Amino acid sequence: QKEVEQDPGPLSVPEGAIVSLNCTYSNSAFQYFMWYRQYSRKGPELLMYTYSSGNKEDGRFTAQVDKSSKYISLFIRDSQPSDSATYLCAMANSGGYQKVTFGIGTKLQVIP
Amino acid sequence: DAGVIQSPRHEVTEMGQEVTLRCKPISGHDYLFWYRQTMMRGLELLIYFNNNVPIDDSGMPEDRFSAKMPNASFSTLKIQPSEPRDSAVYFCASSRTENQETQYFGPGTRLLVL
Predict the structure, then answer these.
(1) Across the strands, what pairs with B13?
(2) Residue A82, phi-psi category: left (phi > 0), alpha (psi -120 to 50), beta (remainder)
(3) Which of chain B's residues have a Cβ under 8 Å away from the Cβ of A42?
(4) B113 C-beta neighbours (distance < 10 Å), count
(5) Are A94 and A52 in contact (CB under 8 A)?
(6) In chain A, what is the greatest distance between 2 CA atoms, to the nearest angstrom?
(7) Shortest Cα distance from A110 to chain B (angstroms)?
(8) Strand, helix or coil at A26?
(9) Most buried of A13, B30, B45, B54, CB within 10 angstroms?
(10) Do the beta carbons of residue B21 and residue B111 sit within 8 Å?
(11) Which stretches does DSSP call E strand in B1-114?
(12) Are strands B74-79 and B19-24 parallel, antiparallel or unpaired?
């Protein structure tokens, strides 16, 4: 079993829909949780960065961490065609770069 | 700023050949990272440098892989000899701090080893 599990999709939604992207993990030592967005043929870019449990909101994006269930989510409200990309979750047990574990990524397509 | 620059963007080579990937980090960034991305394994950190010094190379898969950073504005990742299982997208990233929030990725090099 992988340390981080993420459904690769693809996930297709109509424009304006609420999107829910999720990851599960097995390592209870993870404390830092991240979401990256990766457009086709581009490098990943950091979207959200959270520490421990709870919610974090940034515009249309909300990151949610449930450490008791070892489950993290990224919600996108009022989805736009420009949100079409692959979303990678990532997590680590420390704030540095060592041992950051990435999910495989979920491909999202928002249809106009 | 032009961002992180990688070259070449695409590379096709035959098994056994030497491959050299190049990276120019963002000016002023003290940290430089090499990642590999495949469909099966996702994104994996291979090695990272701080002030041109390799800090952690535990992700380098084999001795066939080597990375250098001769100065603050240039790094190479070399594979010799290359094998088909090395086919992947290789990303370089740089950062001002030891924190993912200041990290920026380059566009990647798509490597295909036949």
Answers:
(1) B113
(2) alpha
(3) 105, 107-108
(4) 20
(5) no
(6) 41
(7) 22
(8) coil
(9) B45
(10) yes
(11) 5-7, 10-13, 19-24, 31-38, 42-50, 53-56, 65-71, 74-79, 88-95, 103-105, 109-113
(12) antiparallel
- Is A97 in contact with B100 (Cβ distance < 8 A)? yes
Residues in chain A: 112
- For chain B positions 78-97, those within 8 Å of chain A (CB to CB) are 91, 93
Q: Is A105 on the interface with B (CB under 8 A)?
A: yes
Over its C-alpha atoms, chain B yields an Rg (Å, rounded) of: 13
Preceding omega of A44 cis (within 30 degrees of 0): no
Q: pLDDT tens digits, residue range A7-55?
A: 998 999 999 999 999 999 999 989 999 999 999 999 999 999 988 888 9
Q: Could you tell me if B42 lies within 8 Å of chain A, comparing CB atoms?
A: yes
Q: Do A97 and B98 touch (CB under 8 A)?
A: yes
> Residue A67's closest CA among A96, A105, A29?
A29
Written as six digits, the tokens of B31 are 């940290």
CA gap B40, B43 in Å, rounded:
9
How far, in Å, CA of B54 to CA of A13, rounded? Answer: 43
Residue in this structure with the two tokens 């594979």, named with its chain if needed: B79
Per-residue pLDDT of chain B (114 residues; tens, 9 = 90+): 689 999 999 999 999 999 999 999 999 999 999 999 998 889 999 999 999 999 989 899 889 999 999 999 999 999 999 999 999 999 999 999 877 778 899 999 999 999
pLDDT score at A100 = 82
Residues of chain B neighbouring A35 (CB-CB closer than 8 A):
none
